[in-house]
């Protein structure tokens, strides 16, 4: 896992990235980098462009930047398809994991690796599930459908990512809709990624999750407005952003 250079190189570099959807500018001049083994957090209110950034980095349909460069492990991947990025070691854990009617957890874990030309045995599946506090005995033959809670599906998705052994993982709102058990498991997995030299781009609006980061950036209205120490970013988010002229941003702060 995390086989990129151990000398804390920039595993991901974003330069002057702009994204426009339906004639609306979503991301404006994004510039940041993530080092191997580093947890870099993007914090900001809902609707500020964080998830759109994740989709753009993965090259999803419609999320093609108007300008800018996405460089992964030193290679310009801006024009590559999603599956090509995945094969190079970049993956995304969705904010809302998909349901797969008729597919068991065992089959889901195996299918997750099929496109990467990796095989996984039962012992590895059990290890990954235990790592996210899921009982293999109780869950391997359960369906990945609406009989599972959102927190259970998030942990099972994280188990599949552990088996993928990515060089960088994007975690989109990993704490959204989860219970305390799931939240603790997510923290443990993030620590494991760090120890394995896997870079983590952590997208969140949670101060609790932000404490797991090494560095952070504050996003408002599609722009990075501040980068630095996570605690400083958190304090700025709580105290300074109340004067922001963006109405949606003010509304978020008032209800949070």
Compact overview of the structure:
The chain is of the alpha/beta class and 256 residues long. The protein is built from 10 helices and 12 strands.
Give your account of this protein's structure.
- The structure is a single chain.
- The chain has helices at residues 50-58, 82-87, 105-114, 122-131, 136-139, 150-164, 180-195, 207-210, 230-239, 247-255; strands at residues 10-21, 24-35, 39-43, 67-72, 75-76, 90-93, 100-104, 143-144, 168-172, 199-204, 215-220, 223-228.
- The longest helix has 16 residues, at 180-195.
- It contains 10 helices and 12 strands.
- The chain is globular, with a radius of gyration of 18 Å.
- Helix 3 packs across helix 6.
- The chain is an alpha/beta fold.
- The protein has a 6-stranded mixed beta sheet with strand order 6-9-10-3-11-12, with helices on both faces.
Q: Please bin the fraction of helical residues.
A: 25-40%
User: Whole-number average pLDDT?
Assistant: 86
Q: Output the strand order for the largest sheet.
A: 6-9-10-3-11-12
Could you tell me the number of beta strands?
A: 12
| Count of alpha/pi helices | 10
Order of helices and strands: EEEHEEHEEHHHEHEHEHEEHH
Low-confidence residue ranges? 249-256
The proportion of residues in beta strands is: 25-35%
Rough outline: globular
Whole-number radius of gyration?
18 Å
Oligomeric description of these chains = single chain
Structural class: alpha/beta
> How far apart are the termini?
37 Å
Please give the largest β-sheet.
6 strands, mixed
């Amino acid at each position: 896992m995390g086989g990129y250079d151990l000398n804390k190189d920039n595993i991901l570099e974003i330069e002057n990235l702009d994204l426009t959807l339906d004639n609306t500018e979503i991301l404006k001049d994004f510039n940041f980098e993530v080092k191997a083994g580093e947890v870099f957090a993007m914090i900001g209110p809902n609707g500020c462009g964080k998830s759109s950034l994740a989709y753009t980095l993965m090259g999803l349909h419609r999320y093609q930047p108007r300008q800018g460069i996405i460089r992964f492990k030193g290679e310009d991947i801006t024009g590559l398809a999603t599956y090509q990025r995945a094969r190079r070691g970049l993956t995304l854990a969705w904010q809302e994991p998909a349901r797969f009617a008729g597919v068991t957890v065992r089959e889901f874990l195996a299918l997750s690796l099929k496109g990467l030309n990796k095989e996984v045995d039962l012992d590895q599946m059990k290890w990954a599930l235990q790592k996210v506090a899921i009982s293999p005995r109780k869950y391997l033959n359960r369906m990945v459908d609406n009989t599972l809670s959102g927190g259970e599906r998030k942990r099972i998705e994280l188990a599949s990512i552990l088996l993928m052994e990515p060089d960088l993982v994007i975690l989109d709102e990993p704490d959204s809709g989860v219970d305390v058990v799931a939240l603790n498991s997510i923290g443990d997995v993030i620590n494991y990624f760090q120890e394995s030299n896997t870079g983590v781009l952590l997208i969140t609006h949670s101060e609790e999750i932000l404490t797991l980061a090494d560095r952070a950036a504050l996003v408002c209205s599609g722009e990075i407005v501040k980068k630095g120490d996570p605690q400083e970013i958190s304090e700025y988010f709580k105290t300074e952003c109340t004067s922001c002229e963006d109405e949606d941003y003010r509304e978020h702060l008032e209800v949070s």
